[in-house]
Amino acid sequence: MAPHTPEDKAAELAYVEDNIDFKAEQKVLERVEDNEAAGYVDPTLVVSESDDKRLRRTINRRILPLLCLGYLCQALDKGTVASASIMGWIEDVHAVGQDYAMTATILWCGIITAEPLANQLIRRLPMAKLLAGGICIWSILLIGIGFSMSIPPVFALRYLLGFFESLIGPVIISIMVQWYKVSEQPFVTSMWQCMLGTSSIITSLLAYGFYHLQGGKLKSWQYLHITIAIISFICSVIVFVFLPDSPTKAKWASEQDKKLLVERVRSNNQGLKQKHFKKEQMIEALTDPFTLCLFLLCVFNTLVVGGVGAFGGLLVTKAFGFSTLEAQLLNIPTGVISILTFIGIGYSVRKTGQTCLSMIGFTIPNIVGTVVLLTVTPGDKTKGGLVFAWYLMQIFGACYPAVLMLLARNVSGHTKRSIVYATTFAGWAGGNAASSQLFQAQWAPRYFNSLYIHLGLYACFIAMALITRQVLVSRNNKKIAAANERIAIEGEGIANLHAFEDLTDRANPDFRYCI
């Protein structure tokens, strides 16, 4: 290769100087209103493919397991009473009539009450510490429930359990959005949502084992509560020690990697964190039709899923004719089905880019299973088929992670997000609160009326999924048309320059909705 001439060196130096001036000019153009990202933002920084893969592997290794651990704890804590219900708990606490159903309803009422406060705390306080503190409090409350031998203290403790569990969904989504790109979030959401199925397997195995402990100082269901409380407490310590509050607070990341971690999520156009409350964003959140869509999707989904989860054990024992031990073992495959369907819907969304249509597809098996339970009479020859139909009815649960995918990827502006998150999770809690009331004691053991109501809810969910998709498609079309018009006049600019300005999804011209 020929040596560089003085002219070549002069031209190279001029190029470098021009490039530095260009970068400096572009940095001036960007306005940063993000408390966590400030000082780590550089719109001219290019994240190479090798760096992106390296950072993604690091995040998957250091962050994702802790998110899964947190969600596993709340699923275990919340689901203990459902397993205890067929272990003699109902008789031991003298529950009658709708008392058992009310234990579920009251927990969800606690979540509804706390959601607005929880989401404002998430916006202002260190999120990892909030998550760890919440898990610790749950474990203490669960110990209390394990030693409650009458319904009134159970009601009180279940309400408090729900109040503090209101943190879990919003805080995990908020942490996920900080670390993962929009394209990665369906997979990540599926992973931590799989903990619902994992918790079902763990609880069923523990319940099966503890059910054999009869005649001791403690009841078998008390051993179950105490064991899960200890597991939760240990997990709270792990989360507190190892989970960073944001990418810029990660002690294991170098200063350069912190910049790369911030810049790799620039294309999300959602920023990291902004503590200042903006009234105009609150108004937009409350008047945005998409907020109502998310709320209703959660309500229609959980009105079904919550009831099937709470009363599944009673259906298997009282309606299908299986023993308590058989019911505990038959419940294990429901956890496996949940895990497989959560992974399946995440894969479907990632491959097709069609969240709403994927949800509709995952609703069909539940309709089939419900019709079977309504039309087939229980008997020795049919109870196997009825259990299979009941397994089919677990698939609709995968639509909830898909709703969370819509929520996580389609809302921007930190004040707006806090309001929309609170509204969405209030719908989730509200549907779950009412779901057990759809199973009235006088409708036992086959709950025909409950299942007819479920058929109507499936129709409502499908209709709302189609409406939600149309809302998002229409918004994207308008944004794309406006962008094309702007490019024709001004030319191409730097992509996603408004990512850290704390703009709402509707105000940010670079934001695109995932349908």
UniProtKB/TrEMBL annotation:
Molecular function terms, GO-annotated: cysteine transmembrane transporter activity
UniProt main location, coarse: membrane
Keywords, in A-Z order: Membrane, Transmembrane, Transmembrane helix, Transport
Membrane-spanning residues: 63-88, 100-118, 130-151, 157-180, 192-211, 223-243, 292-316, 328-349, 356-376, 388-407, 419-439, 451-472
Domain of life of the source: Eukaryota
Annotated Major facilitator superfamily (MFS) profile domain residues: 63-477
SUPFAM superfamilies listed in its UniProt record: MFS general substrate transporter
Topology of this chain in the membrane: Multi-pass membrane protein
GO cellular component: membrane
Subcellular location: Membrane
Stated name of the protein: Major facilitator superfamily (MFS) profile domain-containing protein
